[in-house]
Design brief:
The complex is a heterodimer of chains A (107) and B (118). Chain A has 107 residues and is mainly β. In chain A, the strands form two sheets. In chain A, strands 2, 4, 5, 6, 9, 10 and 11 form a seven-stranded mixed beta sheet that branches. Chain A is built from no helices and eleven strands. With 118 residues, chain B is mainly β. Helices cover 0% and strands 51% of the residues of chain B. The radius of gyration of chain B is 13 Å and the shape is globular. Chain B starts with a strand and ends with a strand. The chains are: A mainly beta (107), B mainly beta (118). The interface between A and B is medium-sized, with 27 and 23 residues.
């Protein structure tokens, strides 16, 4: 299975901060990388797909990037509604695998 | 609008089978891929498997021969059966649509929490 190593596992940040979460793939996954946001009691919401494509309805402060086998989700200016757990997902090979998640909290 | 909704018992006894239904509206399950994902206490997420537009299936090897995903196209529903459950199968179960590997899980159900306990 492809392992997705996600970091950090948790972080706290202030409103307006620039926040970056990273996933590293154990094998080449090309751009088959998505990011999901999950708030308590809610279903996951896809934010980014194809490593860099913003999903429909997602605010433009969210962006995705890739550098080699490292994939990043960046929030350019943190808002209170962004507090959630974020997961990466590789979908190039079955079984699809998720990162362990990053819990983003308000400082 | 595409909507998915899971249903099924919230409590299952160890060694029994877990059976869930995902009802889809606004889109035909004879197109694209339809999957099951679960989230464990402690936040780990696991892809369990899918059923495709043609009825073919793919399962996570971690679930070995315990899992089966089937469908009823006349009702636009697909189903999860997980046999011989243990307490480690306690999780929130989600169904979701996938439009291929490059475009996965764009729509999700609200999730159903299943507890395995005697």
């Amino acid at each position: 299975d492809i392992q997705m190593t996600q970091s950090p596992s948790s972080m706290s940040a202030s409103l307006g901060d620039r926040v970056t979460i990273t996933c590293r793939a154990s094998q080449d996954i090309g751009n088959y990388l998505s990011w999901f946001q999950q708030k308590p009691g809610k279903s996951p919401r896809r934010m980014i797909y194809g490593a860099t494509n913003l999903a429909a309805g997602v605010p433009s402060r969210f962006s995705g990037s890739r550098s080699g086998s490292d994939y990043s989700l960046t929030i350019s200016s943190l808002e209170s509604e962004d507090m959630a757990i974020y997961y990466c997902l590789q979908s190039i090979q079955y079984p699809y695998t998720f990162g362990a998640g990053t819990k983003l909290e308000l400082k | 609008e595409v909507q998915l909704q899971e249903s099924g018992p919230g409590l299952v006894k160890p060694s029994q089978s877990l059976s869930l239904t995902c009802s889809v509206t606004g889109y035909s399950i004879t197109s694209n891929y339809w999957g099951w994902i679960r989230k464990f206490p402690g936040n780990k997420m696991e892809w369990m498997g899918y059923i495709s537009y043609s009825g073919s299936t793919s399962y996570n090897p971690s679930l070995k021969s315990r899992i089966s995903i089937t469908r009823d196209t006349s009702k636009n529903q697909f189903f999860l059966q997980l046999n011989s459950v243990t307490t480690e199968d306690t999780a929130t179960y989600y169904c979701a649509r996938s439009r291929g590997g490059y475009n996965p899980f764009d729509y999700w159900g609200q999730g159903v929490m299943v507890t395995v306990s005697s």
